[in-house]
Amino acid sequence: MARRVSDRERWEARHLAAGDASPGEPSPWVMSRALALGSGGVALDLASGRGRHAVPLAAAGVRVVAVDISEHAVRVARRASLGAVHGVVADAGALPLRAGAFDVVLCVRFLDRVLLPRLPHLLRPGGALVCEIFTDAQRTLGRGPSDPAHLLRAGELPALVHPLRIVEYHEGLARDLSVQDYVARIVAVNDGGRLGATEQTSTHVSC
């Protein structure tokens, strides 16, 4: 019987195959929200890969902790940032991180329905969660993930970030530089006594 390849082995092989290649340009939407919220603070980039967002955030002066299951990916991000990114090799589902440690938590193109509801406790009061995650409509484009476990259902994301206060939410076809993908995007804030209230919620067919 063939041995089952673990997620860690699969992602390590994928990043090793990419070598030191650039992880690609960061999402302008993610960068603008993260910089507005985390300037001078500490950001956590979950499933950070080779540093698509962690490296430019560190270059902009944000203190960044990049967590990825691939040791090679974390090493590339560290090297590309000249050591400015603090790398942690860990499964995102078992985060070795202190509660209330971060001003911003990024969750980009990564979905773990068990993990997402646990992210609010990592935020300081006033801290924000910034997510950009594929929706199941992405399958119509014939690229990206196809497993329903890795794709949000329509309207699902707000419930997964409860009890944070939602300040921005879009769902639909989004242009990320030259590529269009179906994603849900959310910015949700830990503001203590008013957790769970909604300040602004907007849903669009494109974002």
What this model shows, in words?
By secondary structure, the protein is an alpha/beta fold. 21% of the residues lie in helices and 28% in strands. The chain contains five helices and seven strands. A seven-stranded mixed sheet has the order 3-2-1-4-5-7-6. Strand 2, helix 4 and strand 3 (86-89) form a beta-alpha-beta unit. It starts with 6 loop residues before the first helix and ends in an 18-residue tail after the last strand. Mean pLDDT is 86; it is low at 193-207.
Looking at this protein, list some descriptive labels.
207 residues; alpha/beta; seven-stranded mixed beta sheet; disordered C terminus
Radius of gyration: 16 Å
Amino- and carboxy-terminal Cα gap: 46 Å
Tell me the number of helical segments per DSSP (H or I, 4 or more residues long).
5
- The proportion of residues forming helix, as a percent range, comes to 10-25%
Mean pLDDT score: 86
What's the count of strands?
7
Q: Main sheet?
A: 7 strands, mixed
Approximate strand percentage: 25-35%
- Written as H for each helix and E for each strand, in order along the chain, the element string is HHEHEHEEEHEE
Structural class: alpha/beta
Strand order of the largest sheet: 3-2-1-4-5-7-6
Unreliable residue stretches: 193-207
Shape assignment: globular
